[in-house]
Amino acid sequence: MTAVTPTRDAADRYRIEPTVMQALRNPRLLTREVLAGLVVALALIPEAIAFSIIAGVDPRVGLFSSFIMAVAIAFLGGRPAMITAATGAIALVIAPVAREHGMDYFIATVILGGLIQVVLALLGVAKLMRFIPRSVMVGFVNALAILIFTSQFPQLIGVPWLVYPLVVVGLLVMYLMPRLTKVVPAPLVAIVLLTAAVVVFAWNVPNVGDQGELPRSLPELFIPNVPLTLETLQIIAPYALAMAVVGLLESLMTAKLVDDITDTHSRKTREALGQGAANVLSGAFGGMGGCAMIGQTMINVKASGARTRISTFLAGVFLLVLILTLGDVVAVIPMAALVAVMILVSIATFDWHSIRLSTLKRMPKSETAVMLITVVATVWTHNLAIGVILGVIAAMVMFARRVAHFVSVTRNIDDNTTTAHYSVDGELFFASSNDLTTHFEYADDPDKVVIDMSHSHVWDASTVAALDAIVTKYKHHGKTVTIEGLNDTAAAFHGRLTGNLGSGH
Known about the structure:
This protein has helices at residues 10-13, 20-25, 27-55, 59-76, 88-101, 103-122, 134-150, 163-180, 186-200, 230-262, 268-284, 294-303, 309-325, 327-331, 335-349, 357-362, 365-381, 384-404, 430-433, 461-476, 488-497; strands at 84-85, 291-292, 408-413, 419-428, 448-458, 480-484. It has 505 residues and is of the alpha/beta class.
């Protein structure tokens, strides 16, 4: 007798181990989470400053935003160990507001964007993730790796020659360190060693302090001074909506990526709600808003091995502590060390299996094309949302074209030559039913025609219209048509629409 394995209930399915309590009771796990948070905090500082510059605001805005969002998402998010902070994508989307309308409108846009994310989450936008094909996901990951790598170019062009050996040494340390021990994250070791070398030998290389001034005080509550009018809404709403969509798309895609890496399931709707709430809180304290950060998340999950909310929470806490109390120490960290970390992250993020010759030979050309479209569109526009949307559209078009060829029509005449029998096989929808009318011999068929639909399914109004057109054409020749074999759903759909879609010509 075959044993039946009970399916896991929702609570078990979304239980991600180790939990926070398990990590707190285990010194080894807790050490890993704490050190991972420290590494992420160090990597967040120059990026937050850079994204502030992109958005056209003071560096403190990006740094405070990263602190608030990391801490908030640690409690509110649905994907443990994922890092949320100020991001370049959000900065690019809302930069025109700060440039054209000032800081108050900028903060109002961030708050409204967060509120829109909350509404979209409640409407179930996270469930749309199931419609993103694997080929788009692979393209998203590969594009992300390329963008992470290319974003390091400004730190590698027109710099002192010492930067290059420092980057190489950093990469070697991170490559060899895990072979000796995984107790201390390799990126942290690389940052400490390179910083120590630069300080001891007084090498003059770009450091974190060169990126912008670090804040000296805590963030304060910021209520934007904007008139509550329709005109204000017309100014900020388009940017807030774009910010909400881009932020959710990046965050949910990153959550799915972490799910795959850790072989766990996360609560996407809760993550979407958490992102919205974190953006509202960020705006309320004068932050620029953001979303999940793929680079820092990969540092946390892949490079440092973190798995719980502790690392996310401490990344935010350490960020604030570092910039407020250890700002002078952080300022001397060479950018070469952080560049090395990000290059390693880009290499680890890229799906190298997807571009192997053996994989490309086995993979359908349409799947490879969708992956390439996603990569090219993302890298070209520097916008992950545009890349993913174009990739999904390409996947839909190619799927429709592929399925459209699976429909066949077989004709048989009975022995008495009084009835023509047609058997339709395949899925009938707008792409496959458009040429359905061309498969019938209207003038040459006998007076009675039977169309057997038992091996097909009617999916849309286009198919009903095509069947109506076939019946009408036969009537013009004085012949009767009987449609049989429709399943209950298709029969009900056909019965509701037939004769109500126009002339049938």
